[in-house]
Design a protein that fits this description.
This protein is an alpha+beta fold. 50% of the residues lie in helices and 17% in strands. Strands 1, 2, 3, 4, 5, 6, 7, 8, 9, 10, 11 and 12 form a 12-stranded mixed β-sheet that branches. A 6-stranded mixed beta barrel has the order 15-16-21-18-20-19. The model has no long low-confidence stretch (mean pLDDT 82).
């Protein structure tokens, strides 16, 4: 114990004596560990998606169509009966109703009609209920704690009634806990699935084709989904529906893959999990390399200490223990400081990243043991090389003033520094490319105007009321134009239609096409260019069955021009026995519009046909004059209150919606840039270590050169050439690897930047400039020093 105490005292004295090196070591390790903890919290949150569901390993989401995550309501129960490996199924049908209680009204985005079995499949915990079977009542609904506080603050909501779209009543039978943020779904209302048809006004429950529900399957323990999927083709054939055989792509997505490996919520974030995990490893390696470099850089100043201690009887193991204790002390102090920094910075980091990370996730016994193991492992990695180097000095040699640096040690140190440069170049390149792509998305010509446009949802309103509202809005002086359509640009809301067989091109892979219904002011409102032909005119009866097409559709059909061209799609009429017949809708193509991005930039522009509104359209866009958008909103609000009394006035700026579409990419880019900057800072500390080491090792050589007339510029070249060579080698290795990785990330965008050579050149030059500035500072310091002091011992 006394020996350990003496060694700790010696460690403290050594740190005080070498204040600058100690502070740099402490600072570098603290930044590295702080970054590592933050990244691990971020990655852990991503990996924990849907782990809150106790049966997550057995749950899959049924997929009916490629690229879609919903199915017809009839499909799930039928598969449940057909396959013994499926224990239960549950369907969720999303709706966006106006929910009212007394004078409180809100449009609710997280309203679902649900089978009662959802409580057996997903882990939705009831905290209050009026009956054991909360779905026993046909009009029963259970609500989240958030909704209970929103509508019934201070009241017991059980037994109370909510109005659905103003004319239907729901009875509250239970309250459930809010699902955690890292869940793929966050329902606020779960109403009885049996009433979905009555409440929505269309067949949700008893058809194969839609409107779509999320269909969850609970598989028996140990079931291999591949065994069930192999029987899907035979099941589809048994339905004797040619359309199903050609269009359905039945599949099952494991619940735990839904967030990480599909685009259901975002763009396959498993890629970012890999990237950030690698970043955490890189940051810790940089911190360790810095410690090693700085510890060995000050070896000259400790040679006589080691020599004297060896002469006085200290053994090599004792010296190694001493040096390892120094490392453990630094790592422990840095870890404690880093944890305190994480506690202080986590709220700001959550705002920055859009996460809800909590520090109490770290405060467990297991994490304490992990932290202890982490300190020991990190101390070993960072301390073992300096300990062996410093304890291996020959006492007779070093007391004479010599310090031999063998080629192996020089190569090892250069490798460490080169690795730091390698990581820094990759981080710089990745940050530049991520933000260049985001800037490209923000500035790319989309084929439509989004500036100065406000959007409204007129869902549930009568056709005449919608038309009257549009007419009144168009009369406002701050308004240029307004339109009502089925979907707006950037939303990807379109109707998938099956083309009439006569119009399907011979070489077409499938016979489907996207259709948009819109009024005559759609193109004017969004400044979409009419390339040829004319606009649809509601005053012409024939135009009710006529079409506009986009340029992609013109290419798809293989037409040189549209003169005399026709196209059409099938609508469906259901029969009493549940089957359906196809009804062809044919019409003349009267105009071609310039391609525009109706979906986001991760999707290519699809062939599209446009026809006039049919009456069920509810998306409205209003183009305002420049600088008058605030006034327009207030005037539109006044008209809204008169025509739609009792309905909340909720509007969205189209510019804001566009940014929201890429919010995940922006957040990820900001987080990545933050860690990239910190990585570069740590690398700069490593550069300081290298320069300090080089200046220390060549102090006498520099003194002699000065006496022989060397200039500051000459000394600068002496110290920087080796360093620039290391950056060159590191760039040659890092650039191809970074290019491969970033091309993979860019491949998730249908429209993306081209990575020019100037980007790679810029990354390397940036690191060179930073490094040369640091070299210049140290070279100036060494060059201005009195050479007599460095040669005094000769």
């Amino acid at each position: 114990m006394n020996t350990l105490y003496r060694q700790l005292i010696m460690t403290w004295r050594q740190a005080k004596r070498m204040k600058l090196f100690s502070l740099i070591n402490l600072f570098g390790l603290t930044i590295g560990i702080t970054c590592c903890i933050m990244i691990l919290l971020y990655v852990n949150d991503e990996l924990q998606y849907d782990k809150n569901h106790l049966k997550a390993d057995q749950i899959v989401l049924l997929q009916q169509f490629e690229g879609s995550y919903t199915t017809g309501g009839k499909l799930g129960p039928e598969l449940d009966k057909r396959f013994a490996q499926i224990e239960q199924t549950a369907r969720l049908k999303n709706s966006f109703p106006l929910i009212s209680y007394k004078d409180i009204s809100f449009y609710e985005q997280q309203f679902y009609f649900s089978d009662s079995t959802i409580l057996n499949i997903l882990s939705i915990d009831l905290v209050n209920r009026s009956t054991n079977n909360v779905f026993a009542e046909n009009n029963g609904v259970i609500i989240s704690e958030k909704i209970a506080n929103k509508y019934f603050a201070g009241e017991n909501p059980l037994g109370k009634q909510l109005r659905y779209d103003g004319n239907k009543l729901l009875l509250i039978t239970g309250v459930f806990k809010n699902l955690p943020s890292n869940s793929h779904i966050h329902p606020d209302f779960l109403a009885n699935y049996r009433i979905a048809n009555d409440f929505t006004g269309y067949d949700v429950t008893d058809n194969y084709w839609g409107p779509g529900s999320l269909t969850y399957l609970l598989l028996a323990p140990g079931t291999d989904p591949a065994g069930i999927k192999s029987q899907f083709p035979e099941y589809i054939r048994s339905l004797n529906d040619a359309n199903a055989s050609g269009i359905w792509k039945l599949d099952m997505i494991p619940l735990k893959d839904l967030y990480l490996r599909t685009s259901y919520l975002s763009n396959k974030p498993i890629t970012y999990v890999y990237i950030f995990s690698a970043a955490a490893l890189f940051v810790m390696l940089l911190a360790c390399f810095n410690y090693i470099n700085l510890s060995t850089a000050r070896a000259n100043s400790r040679t006589k200490e080691v020599g004297l201690r060896k002469v006085l009887g200290s053994s090599i193991p004792q010296l190694r223990i001493q040096f390892m204790l120094e490392t453990i002390a630094f790592v422990t102090a840095s870890t404690i400081t880093a944890i305190l920094l994480v506690v202080l910075l986590l709220p700001e980091f959550n705002n920055f990243s859009g996460k809800e990370l909590r520090i109490d996730n770290l405060l467990t016994i297991n994490n304490f043991l992990i932290a202890s193991l982490f300190i020991l492992t990190l101390s070993t990695i960072a301390g073992i090389y300096p300990a062996f180097v410093l304890s291996s000095f020959n006492p007779a040699h070093v007391l004479k003033g010599g310090l031999y640096q063998g080629p192996r040690r020089i190569i090892f140190r250069r490798t460490l520094i080169g690795t730091q440069f390698f990581i820094s170049i990759i981080m710089i390149l990745a940050t530049i490319i991520v933000f260049s792509q985001l800037k490209y998305i923000n500035n790319k010509k989309l084929g439509y105007n989004r500036a100065g446009i406000i959007t409204l949802d007129l869902k549930g309103s009568e056709v005449n009321s919608k038309l009257l509202f549009k007419q009144k809005v168009m009369q406002l002086s701050p308004v240029i134009s307004a339109t009502i359509a089925y979907g707006l640009p950037g939303s990807n809301v379109l109707q998938g239609q099956k083309l009439v067989s006569d119009y399907v091109p011979k070489d077409a892979i499938n016979s489907s096409i996207m259709r948009l219904t819109a009024d005559e002011d759609y193109l004017k409102t969004f400044n979409i260019v009419l390339k040829s032909g004319r606009l649809l005119d509601p005053a012409r009866p024939a135009d009710r069955e006529a079409f506009l097409i986009n340029e992609s559709a013109k290419k798809y059909f293989g037409w040189e021009d549209i003169s005399g061209k026709m196209t059409g799609y099938y609508t469906f009429r259901y029969k009493a026995d549940g089957s359906y017949s196809e009804i062809p809708i044919r019409g003349e193509v009267v105009g071609v519009i310039e391609d525009y991005h109706h979906a986001n930039l991760k999707s290519s522009i699809e062939p599209m046909i446009i026809s006039l509104n049919e009456g069920n359209e509810s998306q409205m866009a209003i183009l305002c004059r420049t600088g008058n958008i605030g006034l327009a909103i207030e005037q539109v609000r006044g008209i809204w209150k008169k025509i739609f009394p009792g309905k909340p006035f909720d509007y969205v700026l189209m510019e804001d919606q566009f940014i929201k579409t890429y919010s995940e990419e922006y957040k990820t880019g900001k987080v990545f840039a933050l860690f990239a900057i910190l990585t570069i800072i740590i690398s700069c500390l490593g550069i300081i270590g290298l320069i300090t080491y080089a200046a220390e090792r060549r102090k006498k050589e520099i003194g002699i050169r000065k006496l022989l007339g060397a200039s500051i510029l000459g000394i600068f070249k002496l110290l920087s050439l080796e360093y620039i060579a290391l950056i060159g080698v590191s760039s040659a290795i890092a650039i191809p690897l970074a290019a491969i990785g970033m091309k993979y990330w860019l491949s998730t965008f249908s429209y993306r930047i081209e990575i020019g050579l100037h980007v790679y050149f810029f990354a390397s030059v940036t690191l060179v400039i930073i490094s040369l500035i640091l070299v210049a500072i140290q070279a100036t310091k060494v060059a201005l020093a009195n050479p007599v002091n460095s040669l005094r011992t000769e």
